[in-house]
Design a protein that fits this description.
By secondary structure, the chain is of the alpha/beta class. Strands 1-2-3-4-6-5 form a six-stranded mixed β-sheet, sandwiched between helices.
Length: 258
């Protein structure tokens, strides 16, 4: 029977860039990688990314929080949020709207003028063609219904069709690479070297396995919390049903594990 470590390694070996855990690890502290995917999506060769980070948490005044997959800023002060959404339900237009609004709440300091708001791009990379028109990209900007003129608020929302894999198109090649398991199957040399690090070196694979282990632990803790809230099982019964230690259940129950 395979050990837990062996199972985690097999799971890690199958991860793709379109899987958000791997995406966040791959693009963490990787501004050049972020620059490359933005240059493809926006069709720009002049981008210079000054700052990028993964798993940035934003919280609204009402208490609703989101964790951004990738947040970046360029040399002109423009802000970017890149999200991977494998579930169609997670790629709703209103979710994109919320992400856009959350970026804005962080961009103005007290007494700054509204005209100082930075231009923002919220980019959803979806596994399926959620818009159903078989296009590589879907750009959304506010415009006047009566005249067709753009509002010019510089808030942009873009959906990238992950199902689009035309090898003659830069978006198609990028989306192909996002769903590759092996580096040898990828088109873009700009992505391959770091991909090989995680998939083909012991150091990189150790990081991948740690990622899997942490996610599984989070899932176990969430399941323990849910069963504790139901109040129908003893702590021992919860431990047995989830195949976890009674110590972990006690720690969650006593608030020692977040």
């Amino acid at each position: 029977m395979a050990t837990e470590q062996e199972k985690n390694r097999r799971t890690a070996e199958q991860l793709r860039l379109i899987d958000d855990d791997f995406l966040r690890l791959y693009f963490n502290d990787n501004p050049e990688g972020v620059r490359f995917i933005l240059s493809v999506i926006l069709q720009r060769n002049d981008l210079k990314i000054l700052r990028s980070e993964t798993q940035s948490e934003y919280r609204s005044l009402a208490g609703r929080s989101i964790t951004l997959d990738i947040y970046a800023e360029d040399q002109l002060g423009k802000k970017y949020n890149i999200e991977v959404q494998r579930s169609d339900a997670g790629a709703s237009p209103k979710r994109a709207r919320f992400h856009s609004s959350m970026l804005d709440t962080k961009l103005l300091k007290k007494k700054e003028k509204f005209d100082q708001l930075s231009e923002t791009f919220v980019i959803f990379i979806t596994e399926n063609d959620v818009m159903g028109r078989d296009l590589p990209l879907y750009h959304f900007d506010r415009r006047c219904e009566e005249t067709g003129e753009y509002l010019g608020d510089e808030a942009h929302i873009i959906f990238v069709n992950g199902a689009y894999e035309n090898p003659n198109d830069s978006i198609g090649r990028l989306m192909h690479d996002f769903k590759c398991v092996h580096a040898d199957d990828m088109y873009n040399s700009e992505l391959i070297e770091r991909f090989r690090h995680f998939k083909e070196t012991e150091g990189g694979m150790s990081e991948m396995c740690k990622l899997i282990e942490d996610r599984l632990n989070e899932e176990k803790i969430d399941a323990i919390k849910a069963l504790l809230m139901l109040g129908k099982l003893t702590r021992e019964e919860i431990a047995n049903s989830l195949n976890v230690s009674i110590e972990l259940v006690d720690n969650v129950a006593n608030g020692k594990v977040a």
